[in-house]
Amino acid sequence: MAMKLAFSARQKLGLAVPGSLESLAAYLRQEERVVRVLLGSGELHVLGPARYRYTLPRFKVFQLQVQPVVDLRTTLLSQRLIIRSCRCRLDSTALAVNDFQLQLDSWLEARDGQLEGEASLAVQVTRPELLRLIPKTVLESTGVRVLAGVLGRIKARMSRKLLQDFQNWCREN
How far apart (Å, rounded) are the C-alpha atoms in residues 161 and 98? Predict the structure, then answer.
């Protein structure tokens, strides 16, 4: 019987942004621009209004090369941008994984001179036969570290690039 693996990670953001609340809220409404700053434009493809496909960098876990591809949908509220996954697949050189599920729920909001946000990332997958000898707890703790690393890289990129892009956007407008 196949064993399911499940792991998740969460990251919060609080970034001081000089400027008016109205300007920051207007910047968040530039959803494609903000999504490109968050994820990088190299592996991001626009599928349509408020829809994107993001190919994560290929990485290695226990000798397995994997590359998640996630379709995202954005929703705009008055001062909040919400980004959620709506489909995903796993490209892998050594695995035939048909039941890979990745769920991303995140939001960014302009609040009192800062940008606040939170992202949670969760994965469920059947344990690949290739990894049957590795204890489930080891696989899941490794999965948590991988997801935390993905969210940490996005947060670091955002901390570096978003403030700079916001200032550029303010000058352009």
Answer: 35
Q: Buried b / exposed e across 4-40, counting CB within 10 Å, b at 16+?
A: ebebebebebeeebeeeeebbbebbebbebbbbbbbe
User: What is the topology classification, in CATH, of domain 4-162?
Assistant: Alpha-D-Glucose-1,6-Bisphosphate; Chain A, domain 4 (3.30.530)
Domain boundaries, the chain: 4-162
Torsional sign, CA 107, 105, 147, 38: negative
Q: Mean pLDDT in each 10-residue stretch from start to end of the chain (173 residues)?
A: 83 88 92 90 88 86 80 93 92 64 93 90 84 87 90 86 92 91
Q: What is the pTM of this model?
A: 0.87
